[in-house]
Every structure is written in C-alpha cells, then in structure tokens.
C-alpha cells in the first residue's frame, strides 16, 4: 500500500531524455533556411506590432520552432523520407514508433509552453482569458495544419481513384499546411498588440506560406544542393506527391508521359528503382509543359505581392528574404 500511495499521490515526472531523442536529434541539425522563422517573427513585430518584451518574442519563436520541428518528424514518416537536411531522417535512426510518439509529444510541449509562459508576459490582469485566447489560436492553426497535410497525403495516396485537384485547391491546401505556422506566429503576436492593418498582416503570412511551399516544390526538382540534402533529385516524384509543377504538368497534358508513367503505373519502390525515368520526367516538365517555368513565374508573382503589401521601400527583413527566395533559383 505504501508504494501505491506513493505513486497515486505523486506528480508525473519530467519527460525522460530517451523519448525526446528523435526531436533533439533533428533540432540539432542546421536547417537549410537558417533560423528564418525567428527572423520572420522579429521583423513582423518591428513592422506591425512593436512588442517590446523580449521574453514574449522569444517564447513565440520557441513555440513556432517546436511545432515546426515536430511536424518534420511526422512528415518524414508520412512521406517515407530517408533523409532530412542531408542526414538520416529521425525515424530511420530511432524507429517509426518512438519518432511518431515524440513528434506528437512535442506538439503538446509547445502547447504547454505557450499556455504557461505567454500569459505571464501579457499586461492584462485576467490571465485566464489570455490563456484561453492563446489556446484557441493554437488549436485553430493546428487544425488547419493537419487539414492541409491530410489533403496532401490523400491526393498522393489516392491519385488513381480521386479527381485531380485544381491549382486553386492546391494553393488553398498549402495555405493551411505551410501557411499555418506563419499565421500562428502573427496571431500570437496579435494577442499582445493589435496591428494597424490586421487583414494585410494575415495576407502577408498566407503569402509567405505559399512562397515557401512553391519554392520548395521547385527546388525539389531542380536544385542539386536540395537533392543532396534529400538523398535524391525529384523526391516528390519518387514519393508520388502532387507538388505544384507536377500538378500543372498533369493538367497541361493528359497524354502518356514520363510523369504519368511514374505516378499512375508505378509504386514508390518501382519509382526508386527507375531514377533515370525521374530525370526524364523533370526534363519533360521543363521542356514540354513548361511547368517549372510556370512555378517560377508564380513564385516571383507572389513574392512581388508580398513586397507590394509590405512596401517596396521598407528596409525590412521581410523584403530581403522575399527577394532572396524568389530570385535564388
């Protein structure tokens, strides 16, 4: 009875390091874009919110970073990716089960961090209302993130039996999947300070999600450095994903092509064994359907829209990073 009483009246212990190993492993690998989300948050604050409490900005950045890294752990499992940032993906080192649990665990760590820390920095006396407002923001964008990710997976896994999504549907999907963390950042900032132009702030956050994703879609197919980090060129084709250039290609020409052969006639294992056909498919999208050019033009168009909204003469990190993203391919 003494042991039982000790257990049932005790508080849960801290998270053991052993079950955080996949997250800590991934977090220690430098990202391809540096600490861009933290810079995004600081720049957004300087332009639109002017929150002068360093702890508030640091905690919001911490929460976004944990959500981002946690989503990568789960994404790599869902995509069957063997590499992340040029090194073995976490689940290939620590196993699918532990990595999946760790990714989900760290979502709740981020939620707890936001709930416990952020209300302390708010000037309002009613900390409970602030905590509830923050929780609602977090839940809303986590739902959006999983909504977008779910559609991405559904289109990939049911390509042969599902109607091909429209370009507009794809854009809406990535606004949820990739834009969610950008919106989450500005909404958390907005819980502490009301921006002068809230619709514009949210529009910029949405556009950043689109720009990041379609640039990633393009780099996946054409960039040698990206291919090295992922372990192969054209990883999206090998995985059977409907990225923007792939989707554009399928909509542009319905006749037989290397792209259709890969996606409609082969499974992932067969695609992995036919990398020459993957290269032919990339060339086909470049020459025949101009899908790579189409994607690059959209990247520049959306990047220009961000600069227009921010203000082309604004000396801001937001303008600098958009210029870099849209002109570096």
TrEMBL record:
Domain of life, per lineage: Eukaryota
Name used for this protein in its record: Uncharacterized protein
């Amino acid at each position: 009875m003494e042991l039982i009483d000790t257990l049932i009246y005790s508080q849960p212990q801290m998270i053991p390091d052993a079950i955080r190993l996949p997250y800590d492993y991934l977090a220690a690998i430098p990202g391809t874009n540096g600490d861009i989300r933290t810079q995004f948050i600081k720049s957004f604050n300087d332009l639109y919110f002017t929150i002068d409490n360093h702890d508030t900005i640091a905690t919001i950045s911490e929460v976004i970073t944990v959500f981002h890294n946690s989503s990568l752990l789960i994404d790599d499992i869902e995509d069957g990716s063997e590499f992340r940032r040029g090194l073995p993906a976490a689940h290939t080192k620590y196993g699918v089960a532990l990595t999946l649990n760790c990714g989900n665990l760290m979502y709740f760590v981020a939620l707890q961090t936001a709930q416990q820390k952020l209300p302390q920095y708010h000037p309002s006396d009613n900390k409970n209302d602030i905590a509830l407002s923050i929780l609602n923001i977090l839940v809303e964008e986590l739902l959006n993130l999983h909504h977008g990710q779910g559609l991405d997976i559904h289109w990939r896994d049911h390509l042969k039996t599902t109607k091909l999504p429209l370009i507009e549907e794809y854009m809406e999907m990535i606004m949820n999947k990739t834009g969610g963390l950008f919106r989450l950042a500005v909404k958390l900032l907005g819980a502490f300070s009301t921006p002068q132009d809230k619709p514009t702030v949210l529009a910029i956050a949405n556009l950043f999600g689109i720009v990041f994703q379609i640039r990633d879609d393009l780099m996946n197919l054409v960039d040698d450095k990206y291919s090295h980090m992922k372990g192969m060129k054209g990883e999206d084709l090998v995985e059977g994903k409907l990225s923007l250039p792939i989707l554009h290609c399928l909509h542009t020409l319905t006749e037989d092509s290397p792209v259709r052969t890969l996606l409609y006639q082969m499974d992932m294992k067969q695609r992995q064994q036919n990398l020459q056909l993957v290269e032919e498919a990339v060339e086909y999208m470049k020459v025949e359907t101009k899908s790579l050019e189409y994607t690059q033009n959209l990247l520049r168009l959306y990047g220009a829209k961000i600069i227009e909204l921010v203000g082309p003469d604004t000396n801001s990190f937001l303008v600098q990073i958009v210029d870099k993203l849209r002109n570096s391919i």
